[in-house]
Amino acid sequence: MGSMGLVVAAIAAVAVFIVLFLIIMVLYNGLVRARVNCDNAWAQIDVQLKRRYDLIPNLVETVKGYAGHEKDTLEAVIKARQQAVAITSDSAHAAQKADAENMISQALGRLFALQESYPELKADTNFRQLQEELTSTENKIGFSRQHFNDTVGTYEQKRQTFPTVLVAALFNFAKREFFELKDTAAREAPKVSFS
Buried (b) or exposed (e) across 116-140, using 16+ Cβ within 10 A? Predict the structure, then answer.
């Protein structure tokens, strides 16, 4: 093989290296974009969850004024809120956060059921306003959760398909969990009734 053959082989090797580098770069950047989209979608859920957490103490205080002896129900709501707030709020902990949110939804369901036993509570303007705000927040959480799960689905699809799976493994792109509610009753926004 002459010197011309060596030059051609070197040029071919460099060209193959450049093409492989460009392919890896494109795949890597696609994974990074998908991961950032997941983080952004999680931030939207987090905003709504914080709003929910802020409303709960006011709701409990309002109920306490009318049904203070319903201590177990009130404590269950506060405990569920505290447990949810304590969980690290990032998309890597979405499954844990979903479990905690299930507990809050169940506790709030019991709290809202108290209005049937306490007509004065049901008629309280502050209680009704807080209930409306909480229902609106629950709806926003639902929409944000759907968007987050869509972005996680896109990320996971990229992360697990060939040839991107090779780049994901090489650069340690971690699996993302969906934010799913386990309790079918918790999948629905709380019902607000003023009758």
Answer: eebeebbebeebbebbebbeebbeb
- Using CA of residue 123, residue 125, residue 131, residue 136, what is the dihedral sign? positive
Residue 172 is assigned to a structural domain of this protein:
yes
Establish if 122 belongs to a structural domain: yes
Question: So what's the pLDDT on residue 124?
Answer: 86
| 155 contacts 175 by C-beta, under 8 angstroms | no
Question: Contact 136/51 with Cβ under 8 angstroms?
Answer: no
Domains in the chain: how many in total? 1
Task: With respect to residue 98, please indicate whether it lies within any of the assigned structural domains.
Answer: yes
Is there a domain that residue 194 lies in? no
Any idea of the CA torsion for 42, 43, 46, 51, to the nearest 10 degrees? -140
> CA torsion, points 163, 168, 171, 175, in degrees to nearest 10?
-170
pLDDT on residue 112: 87
10-residue mean pLDDT series, the chain (195 residues) = 86 96 97 96 93 91 82 89 87 84 90 85 86 92 94 96 95 92 54 48
* Confidence (pLDDT) at 191: 53
| Residue indicated by tokens 């580098």 | 21
Structural domain containing residue 63:
3-187
